[in-house]
Structures are given as structure tokens and as C-alpha cells.
Amino acid sequence: MSEALRVAVVGVGHLGRHHARILATLPDVTLVGVADPDAARAAEIAAAYGTQPFAAASALPAVDAVVVAAPTELHAELAGPFLSRGVSVLVEKPVTRTLEEADRLIALAARHGAVLAVGHSERFNPAVAAALPHVTAPGFVEVHRLSGFRERSLDIDVVFDLMIHDLDVLLAAIGPDVTAIEAVGVPVLSPRIDIANVRLTFASGCIANLTASRISFDTIRKMRFFQPRAYIGIDFAKKDAELYKVVMGAAGAAIDGGKLEVEKAEPLQLELEDFVDAVRTRRAPRVSGADGRRALELAHRITSLMAGGIFSGGNSK
What we know:
Elements: E1 5-10, H1 14-23, E2 29-35, H2 39-48, E3 53-54, E4 65-68, H3 75-84, E5 88-92, H4 99-112, E6 116-119, H5 126-131, E7 140-146, H6 158-174, E8 178-186, E9 195-202, E10 207-213, E11 220-227, E12 230-235, E13 240-249, E14 252-259, H7 267-281, H8 289-304, E15 312-316
């Protein structure tokens, strides 16, 4: 494409606003509109970023690509018609509510030659990019993603809201084969699971222990990999990464390492730049529809073990 890419944002709540903000600044991109059923919100965001407001996705002008940042239950309904017309879509995580919906979007994108990307923004975190090349044979991974309570994303469990970020990173780092799952989850301040602990066993033998909470006083987003003779740490919030290795010298074993060099960049901007480039060049995005489906499938396997009641858990092989 030699002309500016025409892009719109569907859903301009907390996250959609930031998509609009960044798209309005990207070179060779024209933000042609934002759509939201809240007319006042659409008008506010449109005015802030120099574009036009629309009450519905169907009212948008002709576009080359859209970002769908609406509630999860609407992802398939909103993304499907665009993909059917060959319009590329970046849909926020989780990709859809069900695996069947995800399969339908993936099939539509393939059939009509559209790019389907999924907004797992932590994959674009510069700390992740710096750390993952050093992850080779982890035996144990410890993950904490804790945040305070907020009255949004309460239509989904914390596994789909927060933990799914870490599931996606783990699947990319270790591989897709999870052979066993132990899980426990508790609804505390909402009807959905607000805090969850999960233990995953991968085919490689690696075990990952994950905790996700949206009812904590502290904000923590960390992932730590332990492998033979090395430790790799990621602080998603601070965008820091560190590597420590055991090295052998004349005097014996010693610890060497420290902070890794990390690019100073906003993950969401890197995600949108990747999406725009994928649309222009017709290549696969870094996080594809298939990647989003894998994370969704694992999240469903986990939450199926938590379906038994207020305090529930189990083991799945």
C-alpha cells in the first residue's frame, strides 16, 4: 500500500482510547473514525485525536483495518463482518469468548485474505523481547500478576482478564504442550473469579506456577525463569529484565550477570506498529489469531477446573 492506511477503533473505553491516541500519531496511518455506543464518549475521543465519532461499527467509512477494543462478548460479532470484507482486524485479548468464535474469525481471515492479530501486548513489552532469547530450558517458572480492584473487565474471570497475558508469554517461551493443570480460584468482590492460582506442567517437564489477582493492594507483574545455570527475570510493569548465569573460572564457579539492555518503548505502540506493518506487507502478525486461540484454549482448560463452586480446583491431564 502506497497510500495512508485507513484505520478505525471500535470501542473507546479505557484501552480503546489508547489505541486511538497512538494510531493518530503513526506515520502513513489515518485514523478515520472511532465507534462506540456511548455517543458522548465517542465524541470526546474523536475530538481529542482529530477524527470522527460514530455510534456503531457498521456506520464507519471505508477502512483498511480496525482495532476492536470492545467487551470480550462482542469481539466475534464486531470483528466478523470486517474480516468477511477483507478488512484486517486487531482484536483485544482474549480473542473471543469461545473457541468456536475464535475458529470462525481465524477461518474468515484466511478465506478473505485479511490479517487477524490479537492484542496480547505483553508480547511486545521490551523487557520480554530482551529476556526471552535467554530462555532455553526452564525447569520452573514463577509468575505473579496482581492489581487492585477496578470496575471494568468484570464480565470475565481474572484468568481471562489478567492471567491470559502470562499464559500467552509462557506458550511462546516454552511451547504449547501443557500436560497437566492444577487450579484454584475464588470470587471475592465480583461474581467472577477474582484471584486464581494455577500450576502448569509442560511436556518438557517444566512447571509454571501462576498467581493472578485483581483484588490486591500492591501492583506486581513479574515472571521469573529458573533453568540450569541461569536465572532470567522480567518485571513487566517497570519494563526491566535481568539475567544471572553461573560461570566457571580458574577459581571455580561464580555468578555473573545483571540488568539486560531494554528498549525504551511503549508496548501498545510496538503492537500497533507491528499490526500496521503486517497489514501493509500481508505478513503474519507477531501475535496471530492462532496464538490468541492457544492462550484462550489454555485459559478455558484452567477455568473449567474452577467451575465447581466458591472454592474450587482440580487437576487436568
